[in-house]
Amino acid sequence: MPPPKDVVKIAVQMVGAIPQLIDLPQTKPLAAVLKDVCNAWSLPNAEHYALQYVDGRQTYITESNRGEIKNGSILRLTTSPDQEAERLHSGIQSNNSDVKTDSLKKLAGLSQDVTFAQEFINRNGLKQIFHIVEEGNATGEMLAHTLKAFMELMEHDFVSWETLSAAFIKRIVSYVNTSSVDAAVQQLSLSILENMVPTNRLLFDLVRKEVTLDRLLTHLQATNTQLQVKAMALLIALLLAATDAERRDMMDYLQEKNIRQFIHKNIIHSSEPLGDEMAHYLYVLQSVSLNLCERRMRTSMDPYSQEQRELLQSLRQTAFESESEASSGNFSTERRRSLCAKEFRKLGFTNNSNPAEDLRRAPPGLLALDNMVYFSRHTPNAYSRFVLENSSREDKHECPFARSSIQLTLILCEILHVGEPCSETAQAFYPMFFGQDHFFEELFCICIQLVNKTWKEMRATQEDFDKVLQVVREQITRTLSLKPTSLELFKTRVNALNYSEILKLRQTERLHQEETLAVPVLELRERLKPELLELIRQQRLLHLCEGTLFRKISSRRRQDKLWYCRLSPNRKMLHYGDVEEGACSAPIESLTEKIPVADMKLLLVGKECLHTKEKSSGKQNKDILELAFSIVYDTEEYCLNFIAPNRYEFCLWTDGLNVLLGKEMTSERTQTDLDVLLSMELKLRLLDLENISIPDTPPPVPKPPSNLNFCYDFSQAEQ
Fold first, then answer.
1. Is residue 405 within 8 Å of 448, Cβ to Cβ?
2. Closest CA relative to residue 357, chosen from 392, 402, 399, 325
3. Do 254 and 353 reside in the same domain of the chain?
4. Model confidence over 295-337: pLDDT tens digits?
5. DSSP codes, 636-671
6. Residue where a domain terminates, one of 37, 61, 79
7. Other CB atoms within 10 Å distance of the CB of residue 80
8. Residue 697 included in any domain
């Protein structure tokens, strides 16, 4: 007979004693359970003991988390959190350095547990940690354990970062600014400062003043990859917390120090593979840099601004300088105004008499004017060739430079997401961005010449303007999807993708679509679907068996701890557990926690997940919701919460879990994979029918013959 639902079978260990196998009623008070366990081993003072998981993070069992105990769990009888907190509180004040170091080491490990952390903080334990750091005598391993314990205790949000003393902060800053300090201490110090920066404006100002950009650049040049990541994390935190003006000044200074070229050479093209965390920080740095264009993009041209009018006039003067100077000397004001209007028309402005009107639309606003001026000043030959070449064409065939530039600037802003907030999880950056100063302007210079080239290839007229820009957008997006490593490579590839190539690609895609829409082909697709869906199901389950590394996301920090989850080879158990930073995978034996697949009841995604509601804050955005999912198991009270590293993993895991639950796979990746597999299978099956039209209805079956005399009589042949 199976045990009651509220009773779990567990083992309890204690050093030097024979383990106990007990039935734990979940309705029985924990104090009574502890008393029974202690009585079995003849231990007095049961209130001085607590139960703790043997494996994993060794969390203390409390009334609030006891529901997570599973059948077969192994627990340890150990000193209660309040007793342990008292002992370690005394140990870290010891005059014996070995005792002090051991106490701090154990404190760093136990502080991950919220129950212990609360007890230790209630005893003013943080005050002792502050004292150890402020007096400055701790070094090496002792100091590293102290800072680690501090970080773990602060993670629980019992104490505000704003309460830190100036002496403590200055000591942390000194560890970052001193080259001789141990790398582990510097990494922890950088992490502490990174957490301080977003919490308070005064702390931001203090860190920005004390930790210079030059110092962070020095850490970025270190050979220690983790030190590079922590330095980049602090740099990004400073940039995100800064005002627009401060951010612009910081980016200008970093540009002077050639940070992009350093990142391009020493981080992106390093011999070490680029980690997910660094990839995210590079994405944020790219996004912050591009968003510096937002102010100009959203600002309309002011026709009364002398500076803006001069920029506009410089476009005309650069293109028609010799011509206008030679002919306008003796002209009246009216004649000169008429000549200027004619030249602005040749430049491609829609409103010849008042070209500033063309730039009143925002976006792209003044950013379009900046791009045109940059193009005219940095590539004057290409600029003059563009303008003069189109001036010599018939009116209806000329490619309007100004109108094209305004629309192209808007297209580039949309493709590069200028003005959009940074994602908290994205890692998609363009390597070529870090290989070039003035990236946006240089990209514009390449693409505006592409517009002229495509215009000529299409033999376009003014009526085809939108079509040409649509083709140009497609050329740019297709080329960017190849992730070229430099602008030169981008230029080569985008120019090779000419209009005829775009037509070929479109035709191939259209023919493929038309071919797959024939009635017999649609019937064949439906017959193939079940077999291919089963193939996708097996692939999803195999991916779950391989496992994935997940990050725990907190409300204060982008990332916290790493944990790994994988399905057992027999597909009956889901194993999971914490892993160390830098781990790529984890053997199934090392994952101490497990959930039987038979106990899984429901899969929640997005806003349905409780952990997204708990973690929500003003800085959270929709990316976390798009990557969150939870497994409800046993009863609907217990959940295992996930936040996928990317959308691909989200799709594979939610599909795989749905398969285990006996439900349909619902992710967009399923449809994509199914379409690819169907396309491949159909192409193989229809290979012999190339250039043969497939009728919508099958040919009629001929009537049976009037007689069967044409049949050969084998019996006579044998005689």
1. yes
2. 402
3. no
4. 999 999 998 899 999 999 999 888 887 555 545 555 567 777 7
5. TTEEEEEE-SSHHHHHHHHHHHHHHTT----SHHHH
6. 79
7. 21
8. no
| 3-state SS, residue 171 | helix
Q: Is 565 helix (H, G, I), strand (E, B) or coil?
A: strand
What CATH number did the domain enclosing 558 receive? 2.30.29.30
Query: In whole angstroms, how far apart are CA 223 and each of 266, 268, 274, 278, 583?
Result: 10, 14, 14, 14, 19
- Joined together, the tokens standing for residue 567 give 């399905």
Crossing angle (nearest 10°) for helices 366-378 and 380-391: 100
597 and 662 inside one domain: yes
Residues 461 and 486 in one domain: yes
**Residue pair 536/670 in contact by the 8 Å Cβ criterion:** yes
Query: Do 412 and 404 meet the contact criterion of CB atoms below 8 Å apart?
Result: no
Answer whether residue 21 is part of any domain: yes
Write the pLDDT tens digit of every residue in 558-586: 455 788 999 999 999 999 988 877 777 88
Q: What contacts 24+ positions apart, CB below 8 Å, involve 148-154?
A: 148/108, 148/188, 149/104, 149/107, 149/108, 149/111, 150/126, 150/192, 151/188, 151/191, 151/192, 151/195, 152/108, 152/111, 152/112, 152/117, 153/111, 153/117, 153/120, 153/121, 153/125, 153/126, 153/129, 154/195
CATH number at residue 248: 1.25.10.10
Q: What phi, psi does 349 have (nearest 5°)?
A: -80, 140
Domain boundary among 28, 44, 79: 79
Give the domain CATH number at 55.
3.10.20.90
Own/partner contacts of 426-430, CB < 8 Å, gap of 24 or more, are: 426/280, 426/283, 426/623, 427/276, 427/279, 427/280, 427/282, 427/283, 427/646, 428/283, 429/279, 429/282, 429/283, 429/285, 429/286, 430/286, 430/480, 430/483
What pLDDT does 289 receive? 94
Kindly state the helix (H) or strand (E) to which residue 260 belongs, with its residue range. helix 259-262
* Domain membership of residue 59 as a residue range: 7-79
- The angle at the Cα of 224, spanning 222 to 228, to the nearest 5 degrees, equals 65
CA distance 196 to 206: 10
What's the full length of the chain, in residues? 719
Q: Are residues 425 and 500 in the same domain?
A: yes
Task: Measure Cα distances from 610 to 64, 634, 715 in Å.
Answer: 16, 17, 81
* C-alpha pair distances (Å), 173 with each of 133, 161, 213, 569: 11, 15, 13, 49
In three-state secondary structure terms, 65 is coil
Domain assignment of residue 689, yes or no = no
Q: Are residues 585 and 607 in the same domain?
A: yes
547 phi/psi in degrees, rounded to 5: 90, 165
115 lies in the same domain as 203: yes
Low-confidence ranges of the chain (pLDDT < 50): 1, 326, 557-558, 616-620
Say if residues 565 and 550 touch (Cβ distance below 8 Å): yes
Give domain status of residue 419, yes or no: yes
Cα–Cα distance list, 324 to 230, 312, 347 (Å): 58, 15, 14
Other Cβ atoms closer than 10 A to 119: 22
Q: Tens digit of pLDDT for each residue in 629-671?
A: 999 887 556 788 898 988 899 999 999 999 999 999 999 999 9
Are both 129 and 75 inside the same structural domain? no
Asked whether residue 282 falls in the same domain as residue 367, the answer is: no
Number of domains within the chain: 4
